[in-house]
Amino acid sequence: MGSKTGKVGEQGGEIRISPTMGTGRSLVKQSDAKREVVLVSACLLGVRCRYDGTSNPASELLDRSDICVVPVCPEQLGGLPTPRPPAWFTGGTGEDVLEGRARVVNANGEDVTDRFLAGARQTLEIARLTGARRAILKEKSPSCGSCMVYCDGKRVAGQGVTAALLRRAGLEVLSLDPPKQGEATGAAVEPEHGTDAS
To answer: Any idea what DSSP says for residue 77?
Structure first.
């Protein structure tokens, strides 16, 4: 299945929402049933869940009434605390982690791959329970990045663990700030400032 990318606000194909997704029950209120259910990185909604205890509130999301927003933070769902050491990939990107070819390590040198995988699985389960077919995620995060992430000290084209898993399950993953055409990758970054982790 090809990756689905896009910028928030772009028109895509028709998406039909099934609030129960085969569970026999719905987590979406009846009053929200006519609005599209969309997973959103919690930090984009003002929740202070980024690795450094801050958030990245996006007014274009906070002001929308046409969608039913379901906030998620895959790293917290995977059991990581906030604040936490920044993390990045080694040996590949999110798709490679799903295949067992790459790992996620933090600034202390600890392997936190299992936590990132657990958070991705929990996020996918939330999508199934709510009927979400789209997700708006924080770019450059090792969980949520949909176009660009950090690997072995460099910014590279790729996706985070959660973004990769959601796409595998058929969700459309969108970014508020997709890379601009010709944006450089491969640039070395300082780990304490350059990971932009969620």
So the answer is: H
